[in-house]
Each structure stands twice: as C-alpha cells, then as structure tokens.
C-alpha cells in the first residue's frame, strides 16, 4: 500500500480566485529576438469549449524554451510567443464543458503537451505526444510564463495535495520526461540501469524515478558535487567520466554480473555518451535516447544485431505518466532540486542558459 498523501504547504495565493484586469507575461515578438516582461490582457471572457483559465504561480524554465525563441529547431514556434511549459497553479475560470475535467480551485499543472485530439490512433493508445494534432505549451500554444494561462482542460495534470506548486513545476517537463524514459527502458526490479548525466537537471530526477522502480542505478557524471548528489539520490555506483580511462570497462564492472547494464538512459547531450552506451550495454540491453541536441547516433550494425540491442527514442510522457510522476513525488519518493527566481529574471536566465551558465533547474515565481 502506498503511504497516504501528506498535506503540502499551501501558498496563500492559491486561495485567491478573483481575476484581475491585467497580468504580467514574458513575450517574445520575433524569432531570434529578446523576451520582454509586459502587461498583457487576460482572456477570461474568451474561453472556448473545453478551455480553462489557470492562475499560474510558478513555472519552471526548460532548455526547450530557449530553442523556441532562438528558432533553431526544425519546427518553428508561433510568434509572438509566451513560452514556458512547466506551469503550476489553480483553475480560476472554465469554458463550456471544461468542468468534465477540472473544477474551479483545482491545483493543476500545464505540461509540454497542451492538447491533442484524443481520437486518433496515437491518442487512443495513450501516445498523445505523437498525435498529429498535438499542441505544445510555449511553442505552438501560449505557455506558462504568464500569470493567467488558457489551457485545454483535458490535458491539465492534477497536482496532488501532498505536493506544493513550486516543487511540482519542474516535474511537469523534466520529471515527466525522465519518468517516461525509465518506463521505456523496460526495467525489471533489480536490473541495472546507467543514468548518464546523473547529477544534472534531468538526470537527478531519472536517478530517483529509476531507484523508486526498484532498479540498481549506476550514475555517470563528473565532479565531486555531482558525485555526492548522485549517491545521495540513489545511485549505488558512480563513475566520473573525466577521471575514468576506460569508461566502457568501468561500467561493465559496475554492473551486477559484469555483463553490462540492462539499460542506459542518456540525459546528457554528448554524442560520445551514446556511442559508449552501445558498447557497454549487455546483450538485449536498451538505450533510451532523451538528451538533446545530439544530431546523430552512430550505431555499429554488426554489434547492434549481434547483441540484439534496442535503441528507443523517448519524447515526453502522456497524461497518465504526468499524473504518476506527480503522485510519486507527492509520496516523498522524488524531489526536484531547483533554484527559484522571478518572472522578471527570465531575460537573464535565457542569456545565462545560452552561454551554458545555468546548472540545474530554474523555477520562476510569476509574481516577482
Ligand atoms: Zn521541457
Ligand atoms: Zn490524436
């Protein structure tokens, strides 16, 4: 039996359901341009069927948000754009029919998949992220860097009572993404899994979700701080890729029977990490591809066949994955590590991110 959900601290702002006339939003007006914090209208009177207005209090910042404004991905984002897809807040208004999914006052999360048709082959099988009509928060649909966001009610995630909105927000993309990646690794309890980038923004959550699933986690990262964090969060072994001369051999030796781990989840963006993983995985092992932006993975065809390896791409999770990832955190099994800043700091955060100066996750208090 899972432990009962405990009550988390409730932000006084969660109780304020009155809608003001104006809000603050971070808006990017052109591809490659800057983001500015502006006063913006709130669309409370224009809610369409199935839409809900969410009073957002916190939003995480993801690397994808930077790609959206830079416009360096193969798919262009809408412009002007309000970015962000890790939003946590409270439902304050409902369009017609939205009450089938949420009620006023519900604590909810806005994730990357803003909407999907729920009728196509992919949606019917729970693969909503692959729906040809999927909308993405902060990319094709205005996102969470605003105080009042319009959301498709059927795709909102419910944030359990045991989880405060601030800690929930980084789970809505980073958490759900790695939780799904752990599922794609098809691990059995006791199996060995390597998390590459175990001390990073995605990796530190992957370590926790994998050990919660009963896997034996081997962390790969570099530096004593990341080593300490990896061990503290559940890695049974840690390998520093900068100190280790023969990484492939070291990982094999760290696996329980010396034949290599059952799965490797790459939550880092180094092409070498993918190649090494294919070398140290045991026969029938699974490589889960999560870390972007690596352009190609080089896989030797002979060894891929001979070792019967699986190479699996993992995008984000579906609605059920999001709910499970949040529930596990509410039960105290997973905790995101992040730093909280204000919405007004977003231009600086983007700048630092662009220059590789951000370590770990950033959460924005949208009232600051
Ligand atoms: Zn993201
Ligand atoms: Zn669909």
Automatic annotation (TrEMBL):
PANTHER family named in the record: ALCOHOL DEHYDROGENASE 1-RELATED
Domain of life, per lineage: Eukaryota
Cofactor: Zn(2+)
Pfam families to which the protein is assigned, alphabetical: ADH_N, ADH_zinc_N
Family indicated by similarity: Belongs to the zinc-containing alcohol dehydrogenase family.
GO molecular function ontology, one term from the record: zinc ion binding
UniProt organism field: Meira miltonrushii
Enzyme Commission code: 1.1.1.1
The protein's name in its UniProt record: alcohol dehydrogenase
GO cellular component labels: cytoplasm
């Amino acid at each position: 039996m899972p432990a009962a959900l405990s009550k988390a601290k409730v932000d006084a702002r969660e109780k304020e359901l009155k809608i003001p006339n104006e809000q603050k939003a971070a808006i990017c007006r052109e591809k490659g341009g800057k983001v500015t914090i502006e006063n913006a209208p709130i669309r409370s009177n224009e809610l369409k069927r199935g839409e809900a207005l969410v009073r957002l209090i916190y939003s995480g910042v993801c690397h994808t948000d930077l790609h959206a404004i830079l416009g360096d991905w193969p798919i262009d984002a809408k412009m002007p754009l309000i970015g962000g897809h890790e939003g946590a807040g409270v439902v304050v208004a409902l369009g017609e029919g939205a009450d089938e999914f949420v009620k006023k006052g519900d604590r909810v999360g806005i994730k990357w998949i803003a909407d999907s048709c729920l009728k196509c082959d992919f949606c019917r099988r729970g693969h909503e992220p692959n729906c040809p009509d999927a909308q993405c928060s902060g990319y094709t649909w205005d996102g969470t860097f605003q105080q009042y966001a319009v959301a498709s009610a059927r795709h909102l995630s419910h944030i359990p009572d045991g989880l405060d909105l601030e800690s929930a927000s980084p789970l809505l993309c980073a958490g759900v993404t790695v939780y799904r990646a752990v599922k794609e690794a098809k691990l059995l309890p006791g199996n060995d899994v390597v998390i590459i980038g175990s001390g990073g923004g995605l990796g530190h959550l992957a370590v926790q979700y994998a050990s919660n699933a009963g896997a034996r986690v081997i962390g790969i990262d570099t530096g004593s701080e990341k080593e300490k964090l990896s061990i503290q969060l559940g890695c049974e072994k840690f390998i520093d890729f900068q100190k280790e001369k023969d990484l492939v051999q070291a990982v094999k030796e760290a696996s329980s029977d010396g034949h290599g781990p059952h799965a490797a989840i790459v939550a880092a963006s180094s092409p070498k990490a993918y190649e090494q993983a294919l070398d140290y995985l045991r026969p029938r092992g699974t490589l889960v591809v999560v870390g972007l932006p690596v352009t190609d993975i080089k896989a030797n065809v002979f060894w891929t066949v001979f070792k019967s390896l699986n190479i699996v791409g993992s995008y984000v999770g579906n609605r059920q994955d999001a709910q499970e990832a949040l529930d596990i955190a509410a039960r105290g099994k997973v905790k995101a590590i992040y730093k909280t800043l204000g919405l007004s700091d977003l231009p600086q955060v983007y700048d630092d991110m662009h220059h590789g100066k951000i370590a770990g996750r950033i959460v924005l208090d949208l009232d600051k």
